[in-house]
Amino acid sequence: MKIPNRSAVLFALLVPLASASNAAIGLDVAIIVNTANPTTSISSRELEKILKQDKQNWEDGKKILLVLQETGTAEKEVVLNKVYKMQEAELKKFWLSKMFRGEIASFPKTLSSSGSVSQFVGKVPNAIGFVDASLVSGVKVVKVDGKLPGEAGYPLASK
């Protein structure tokens, strides 16, 4: 029987710990929109409707462009747990069923990181996305239930 080298064993043990420590750090996820968007605050319920694409237009009638992060990011995990209240596999089935029923034309746009989401939202006036609150740049952070990231009771804090 071949015994794995120490590096491989150490890597296998540390990767799950690194993922767990990201959640333990206390990540706040900021909901962001373009600086031209007049939206400054939304309720948790309205955020859920937007992220589930049950609400697809802004108050001015313009189409909301939802931008998600890829599977495996700490930000996506917080949003899955706090807003969608489902696992990634369930979310994929959720989107497929919405497409099948004709409620949406395609899956939401997905980008790889907070930086790429911020850049995209900063360039697209009707976009909304979520990012690590400590990495916000060039966009407007929207209050959720009257709270900003870092404030007590903020609903998208990982802790």
Would you kindly provide a written description of the structure presented here, covering whatever features stand out?
The protein has 159 residues and is of the alpha/beta class. The radius of gyration is 17 Å and the shape is globular. The chain has helices at residues 6-24, 44-51, 74-84, 88-100, 114-123; strands at 29-33, 41-42, 65-69, 109-111, 127-132, 140-144. The termini are far apart.
List its traits:
159 residues; alpha/beta; D-Maltodextrin-Binding Protein, domain 2; six-stranded mixed beta sheet; 6 strands
How far is it from the N-terminal to the C-terminal residue, by CA? Answer: 44 Å
Radius of gyration equals: 17 Å
CATH superfamily: Periplasmic binding protein-like II
Count of runs of 4 or more consecutive helical residues: 5
What is the count of distinct domains?
Answer: 1
Fraction of residues in β-strands:
15-25%
Nearest-integer average pLDDT: 87
CATH architectural label: 3-Layer(aba) Sandwich
Number of E-state strands: 6
The top-level CATH class is Alpha Beta
Q: Unreliable stretches, pLDDT < 50, 5 or more residues?
A: 6-24
Please tell me what the overall shape is.
globular
Structural class: alpha/beta
Helicity level: 25-40%
Order of neighbouring strands in the sheet with most strands: 2-6-1-5-3-4
**How is the CATH topology named?**
D-Maltodextrin-Binding Protein, domain 2
Write the layout of secondary structure elements.
Blueprint: H1 6-24, E1 29-33, E2 41-42, H2 44-51, E3 65-69, H3 74-84, H4 88-100, E4 109-111, H5 114-123, E5 127-132, E6 140-144
Parallel strand pairs: 2-6, 3-4, 3-5
Antiparallel strand pairs: 1-5, 1-6
